[in-house]
């Protein structure tokens, strides 16, 4: 069974139900903790009464700096929402690790961003180095992936679309809420990955709800493709894509064809005029709730609750 780990300003905790037990470790970074996994097991087996989880203020269990890499359009439902047809080439992009924030920190919308979107994603936390050239089979996943986290790939759509790039639009501070738990997996847990269900709600309204079975490129293949050009190390984070249900949707085909005939400035002005009528983008005061778990609770990454606020 997986073991959930929580990080606070005071250190690391092994989570058992609604109680947390301090881990006796000198680990400062996530990589350090993964190298001292025996201490996590000892804490979980200590039998101590522990501290109520509700009394702890969780930080991101993925410490920074680290590499943050993400997969683009990796769920069939999201591909449909985005207007893709046919085969979709596997694509990766980087996010600044300065975008990583805690599971209870507010998402801060920069003053120039009007169209702020959400993307719940399963994060893979590497447990060891993945060298360039590595081929990862399904049976090899436990050798490279130590655990899982909830992430939200927050996106400034007006920046992303007009500049046709991802790095800036997804890298502002607080644009990668992570946690609350780092779920450390045992080898037998990997057989249950496809049962994981991702859910995201805004103000109690369910927006995203899919299992990993909707994935296009699954974790082992994704790591193999990424390792063609990118090394990953222990503590690095791979975001594996989001299911359908984001605020951004592709326009109807007829509208898209007309738009392709317009000058870029006119096209984007018209597109964002229609987007301004879309109530699903995030606004000041919204509460975003995300969960990822298997139906039987074998793997449960906890609940992430992040308010949205505007930058001063």
Summarize the structure.
By secondary structure, the protein is of the alpha+beta class.
Describe this protein's structure:
- The chain has eight helices and 19 strands.
- The protein has 312 residues and is α+β, with helices and mostly antiparallel strands.
- The strands form four sheets. Strands 4-3-2-1-14-11-10-17-5-6 form a ten-stranded mixed sheet, sandwiched between helices.
- The radius of gyration is 20 Å and the shape is globular.
- A hairpin with a 2-residue loop joins strand 1 and strand 2.
- The chain folds into two domains: 53 residues, no CATH class; 243 residues, Fumarylacetoacetase-like, C-terminal domain (Fumarylacetoacetate hydrolase, domain 2, Alpha-Beta Complex).
- 19% of the residues lie in helices and 29% in strands.
- Residue share in helices? 10-25%
Give the total of domains.
2
Mean pLDDT: 94
Sequence of strands across the biggest β-sheet: 4-3-2-1-14-11-10-17-5-6
Number of strands: 19
Distance between the termini: 44 Å
Any guess at the CATH architecture of the largest domain? Answer: Alpha-Beta Complex
Radius of gyration using CA atoms only: 20 Å
Beta strand %? 25-35%
Major β-sheet profile: 10 strands, mixed
Derived from helix and strand composition plus strand pairing, the structural class reads alpha+beta
The H/E string reads EEEHHEEHEEEEEHEEHEEEEHEHHEE
Let me know the CATH homologous superfamily of the largest domain: Fumarylacetoacetase-like, C-terminal domain
Regarding CATH, which class of the largest domain?
Answer: Alpha Beta
Low-confidence stretches: none
Indicate the CATH topology of the largest domain. Fumarylacetoacetate hydrolase, domain 2
Counted by DSSP, the helix tally is 8
- Described by the principal axes of the CA atoms, the overall outline is globular
